[in-house]
Amino acid sequence: MTRSHHSFSIRRRLTWQLLVVAALLAALLFYSIRTVADAAVEQTQDRILGAATLAIAEELRGGEDGIDIDIPYSAFSMLGALGNDRIFYRIEVNGELATGYADLPLPQAIPSGLDPEFYDARHLGYAVRVAAVSRSVLVASKPVPVLIVVAQTRSVQESIVAGLTNRALILGVGFFALAALMAVAMARSVLQPVNDLAGAVTRRGPQDLRPVKRQVPEELGPLVSALNGFIGRLSGALSRTETFIAEAAHYIRTPLATLRAQSEIALRQTENDETKEQLRKIIRLADNTARSASQLLDHAAVIYRTDQRSDEEIALDQLIADIVEAFRPSAELRDIDLSYHRPSGPVTIAADRLLIETVIRNLIDNAIKYSDELGKVDIRLNALDGQARIEVMDRGRGLGGLELGALGKRFERGGNVRDVIGSGLGLSIVSEVAQAYGGTLDLTDREGGGACACFSLPLA
Which of 318, 361, 376, 377 minimizes the C-alpha distance to 343? Predict the structure, then answer.
């Protein structure tokens, strides 16, 4: 069973990329809202602060003795509209302090006219926003420059910005959560055609090597073309393999059969004992080679059919009965009693007939081959717990101390059967068929001598 190796997941990669984009957009949304909110609150405070400063400037009155400074209540009322912030002011007449806080920071350049100049500063440990205007007031018919500076702390502005920031954060998190769900759904939707294509190919039977004609997105066109090309090459290779196995069976078995027949004719015609012994060795070698070649070809056919199974419902009880009858003449030649015990009802499995026939033939052939003359081979079929169980028991030489793990290997044979013609492939073939169908093969020494081979596979 092959195991696929995944270097990465396209779905996870696409999802992570979409999540990163969503996180960046959420962060950008949060930063934009915070920046806009900060600018809006600052602009609002500047307008109120500028209006209050102009109100103070407009209430300045000049006379013969000096300037009358009357700070209107409306100015403080406007500044208090935003909240309970502290207010500082400084009024200078002709460069000298007239009233207010002497240490309130002045602008870097004296503003011209009544257009307020705004700037940030620190005063008495507070961060303040400052507005400054200047105007000229007539004193004794002479213009005197007056500078009005008004400052307000920013605690209310910061609290407003903090509240808007929290709302922006909640909005950003909600946007990211929604984008994350959409990213997962989008990744799944984008890759769904790939999964549909994989499912369509997976649902095909082992012999279905038709080109894929499923409608797919344009981006999957090259993949489908490559897949169809591979299917075409695989179909051709499997066809050539099947043809080669059939031709090999013919061109190997026929010469060996001819060689054996000619050797038997020569054996009957010769009178020389040494020649007879050599001919018997040739016949034995031909038998051994023919058997090995036959099982090698059976093994190749099993490997091929395992990948290209043509499963059908098989009456296993009747199939075993037919194979037993086919082996009965060869068993009788060695005076071996071949008995078959079948259940009263039918036993049906879903499998490839050729593979199951190969398994049964190998099990019965092994039992007959390794049994002593005048022996007995018992074949039993049972249906238990959803499994069809075939037992082939003989009174031969047993397993020779080896276990299934060793005897199930290719070309592996027990040390007690070296004098018997064999290739060591029979049990290997049975093990591979059992593995292909999720069945089992068990080999045990039989009480009283001999061996028991138990092959089981699921019922239909």
Answer: 318
Element (DSSP H or E) covering residue 459: none
Check residue 407 and give its pLDDT. Answer: 52
H or E segment to which residue 119 belongs: strand 117-123
What's phi and psi for 53, nearest 5 deg?
A: -65, -45
Q: Is the predicted pLDDT of residue 365 greater than 70, yes or no?
A: yes
Burial of 42 (C-beta count, 10 Å sphere; 0-12/13-18/19+): middle
CA distance 322 to 316: 10
- How far apart (Å, rounded) are the C-alpha atoms in residues 233 and 212? 14
Task: Report CA 307 to chain centroid distance, whole Å.
Answer: 25
3 state DSSP class of 293: helix
The model's pLDDT over 56-98, given as tens digits with 9 standing for 90+, comes to 888 888 777 777 787 887 777 877 776 778 889 898 888 888 8
Location of structure tokens 């920031």: 165
Of 415, 366, 411, nearest to 390 by C-alpha is 366
pTM above 0.70, yes or no: no
CA distances from 441 to 130, 265, 322, 369, 449 (A): 95, 42, 22, 19, 20
**Placement of tokens 């093990």 in the chain:** 431
Residue with tokens 């910005």: 161
The encoded tokens of residue 33 equal 């809202």
List the alpha helices (DSSP H) in 347-447.
353-369, 404-407, 426-436
Dmax (CA) for the chain in angstroms is 167
